[in-house]
Amino acid sequence: MSTPQDDEINRGGVCTSERVRLLQDTTVVSVRVGRGQDLESWSLHRSLLTHHSPYFATGLTETPRRSTLHTIKLPEDDPSAFALFVQWLYTGRIAARRDKLPAVVCHAWVLGEKLQCPAFQDRVMCRLLACHVSEALNEDTVQLIYEISPPGSGLRAFAVDQFFWNRAENTSVPQQIGVAGVMAVVDFNKDLLERLCDNDTVAVNPYEDGMRYMNVLDYGAGKVK
Predict the structure, then answer these.
(1) CA pair distance 63, 115, nearest whole angstrom
(2) For 122-156, what is each residue's pLDDT tens digit?
(3) Measured by CB atoms within 10 angstroms of the end CB, which terminus of the chain is less buried, N or C?
């Protein structure tokens, strides 16, 4: 199975003509993410933010006084995850340093949920799927997924599917979650047991069947159509 290149799975997001049109509005918004020493700030085009995120559209309904920069604060969110959102917002691409994956990608998916931006979530999920073509989930990643995502989310569904796939089919990928790891994450254990009780243990290849985790994008074996 070939691994898709970043430009295959991450292109799009904001098409060129649309981006040019939106950037004609030069109104800028200050977005402050995180707190303390981790605080990071961005100056971003209001038109892009409000076009792609209902969260920002709601928060930016009022026009600030002249010479006053409108500021949005996101103290509870991860600056590295927000940096991926900014990257996608302006380029349509998502690329993260290998040593920060998949934690930052999981946080970015949850951020997309908060910002009500399903297209960004889908791009993030494509990146996560690409990361695990040849690398199984480890216990830390499963723990993180279940700490930050809600029950029934696509992120949790991916974790369960990836677990069954690695154990049942994809023998070339070492399984990194042992019995102790499964039991340590209570909700993950419950989801696995629910699948077993429903006799729904057919191994689904998350990479090949990624459409099941998409919100709006048309996914096909590593490429967003």
Answers:
(1) 20
(2) 999 988 888 777 667 778 888 899 999 999 999 99
(3) C
Cα distances from 29 to residues 21, 43, 56, 62, 174, in angstroms, run 18, 5, 10, 12, 46
List of E strands, the chain: 28-33, 40-45, 70-74, 219-220, 223-224
Note the pLDDT of residue 224: 52
Q: Rounded CA gap, 132 and 123, in Å?
A: 15
pLDDT at residue 192 is higher than 90: no
Are 105 and 122 within 8 A, CB to CB?
Answer: no
pTM: 0.82
For residue 212, list its beta bridge partners: none
* Tokens 């990257």 belong to residue: 87
Q: What percent of the chain clears pLDDT 70, i.e. is strictly above it?
A: 75
Q: Three-state SS across 177-213?
A: CCHHHHHHCHHHHHHHHHHHHCCCCCCCCCCCCHHHH
